[in-house]
Amino acid sequence: MVTPNPLTFLCLASFEKGHEFLRECKRQGCRVFLLTSLSLKETAEWPRESIDEIFYMPDADQVWNRADTLSAVSYLARTNVIDRIVPLDDFDLEMAAELREHLRIPGMGQTTTHYFRDKLAMRIKAVEKGLTVPEFVHVLNHDTINRFLARVPPPWVLKPRYLAGAIGIKKVHDASEFWSFANALGDHQPSYLLERYVAGDIFHVDSIVYERELLFCRASQYGYPPLDVAQGGGIFTSRLLPPEFEITRRLLDTNRQVLDGLGLLRGVSHTEFILGRDDGCCYFLETSARVGGAHIAEYLEAATGINLWAEWAKIEIAGGRAPYSPPEPRSDFAGLLVSLSRQEYPDTAAFDDPEVVWRMHKRHHIGLIVKSPSYPRIEKLLAIYTDRVQADFHASAPARERPTQ
Question: Which structural domain, as residue segments, surrounds residue 143?
Answer without folding.
Answer: 135-196
